Amino acid sequence: MKKEGLQKRQTAAMAFIVIMGVVAMFSDMTHEGARSVLGDFLHLTGANGATIGFVSGVGELFGYSLRIASGYVADKTKKYWTLVLAGYGLQVLAIPALALVPDNAWQVACGLVVLERIGKAIKKPAKNTLVSFAASEIGVGKGFAYQEFLDQLGAFLGPVMLFFISLVKGTSNRMATYRVCFAVLGIPALLTVMALVLSKIKYPHPEGFETAEEGPRAFHFEPSFIFYMIAICLFAFGFADFTLITLHVSRTALLPPETFSLLYAAAMIMDAVAALFFGWLFDRIGIRSLIFSTLLSAFFAALVFLADSAPLLIAGVLLWGIGMGAQESVMKAAVSTMMPKSMRSTGFGIFETGFGIAWFLGSWLLGALYDHNPTLLVAVSVSAQLMAIFFYAVCLKKRQKENVGIPHAKQ
After folding, report:
1. Taking the domains of the chain in order of start, what are their residue ranges?
2. What predicted TM-score, i.e. pTM, was given to this entire model?
3. CB within 8 A of 217, min separation 6: which ones?
4. I need a labelling partner for 364 at 20 to 30 A (CA). Which of 382, 384, 391, 411 fits?
């Protein structure tokens, strides 16, 4: 009977992860579809490279730094679903609004980009916490990997959908084509909200999935966590936003404009595959999996921004996708193992705030360096990510010395 109860709970937990993955799939069809052409769109509205880098960074700054507040609120109120519904609603509805941006109104477009990121900040810690409750039953690495796979399936479908819209509409008037694209993305935006409401109705209390007994445990800034934060901040600092990549492709004309969304779709497929593999690997070797993933993705900038051929550019974008896959799955799984259940949203908020601040500063600097000298951009990007590998190794050693019992992952 006990075994049957465990299997039933694991089946329900897996079903919840899949349902939330479907929500994420529709959401990513919306905002990642938009992101695939956003760099060129902002450029057409009048924004230059430094402005695009700054806005991308500001968006990520708000998108991550506000999570420490929303995570704290989630833990204090336990209103996880309220924050998830509010955040998702704001995030996905900001995208179709881009279709209404007037010509040369780059300020309005940039404002909507930032607003979409704020919506993500509101829902993300609470959503990650709900998923972590269910993932604890099947393995945190696998749980977040499955979630990321469905998430990135949407991130693939959105850009592909925009690619076909571009084929039909043509690119003689790219601004008009992009407006149609953003309007069509209102469909998956609506489906996101509908699927989310159904998820809440079916699983009103996902916290019940995590049944492991946990005594009183306050979160402390252990040395291992501090070095982990340093590592992920260095990774974020050197990881260029895709809007900068699309700007570069547009300026160099290595690929035609109608393929921009398809290029991003390829990155998202690589992201999804990498998330599954490294999520599986995390449940076996823990933080070491981040060392391997970062080593693979560290040199994407050299191929992207110094490439003089389309094949090299595409190879760089695929390496960028590997880095994104690890960022969205394994990094979260690692945080989940370090945080007590009662403070997990706060823990995710701390992690993501540090990540966001580093991404903001890095995006701003990389955007400015791109306007000045792309070679300097590559030097900063690669150096930061190689330094991240070093601090992952230090974190691993500190974690072993602390002798902290971590469920579901070998350290």
Report:
1. 2-206+221-402
2. 0.72
3. 340, 342
4. 391
